[in-house]
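Entry 12.
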Amino acid sequence: MVTEPQFQLTTRDHAILQAMLEQHRGPHDPFVLLLARKLRASAISFSDDIPPGVVTLGSRVAYRIDGAQAGPHMLVEDDISANAGADLSIRGLHGLALLGLAEGASITVDIGDGMQTLQVEAVLSQPEAEARMRRNERRATGGEASGSVLHFRPRAAASSHPGTDDDDPGPRAA
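Predicted 3D structure (tokens):
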């Protein structure tokens, strides 16, 4: 039986979560169990391929916790942030829970003394989608070549053997 992956992660987000799990030295608490679950049950995509409605690192997301409005928050990697209150770290249970979820999706997590359900209402911004949009705008306005790129390589200034057109600086064949 084939099942759809519950989470979608970029290669970068997956690598960060994998490193977090490898560096963990504490007990197998609800956070570590969720972290291992995310790594097992995720589809991994290149940044260019992740859908715009999926929560990735750097995404700004509006969500609900047990039906109550939360956010919007920006998902960040570190615990310490210059935007305290506006950012949500993936090193915390709620941030980790939201990472990789698509708009409308929900997850129920063990918070240690009970369960909570988080649901993504909207991904208000996503770095990968914004980068694709900027690239497409540059292409549409002619700011970026849309086809092959030709690279010019100048010829060697002078040949070591007069009368030859060989610009190869290597040894000559006998």
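Annotation: The helical segments are 11-23, 30-40, 93-98, 127-140. The radius of gyration is 24 Å.
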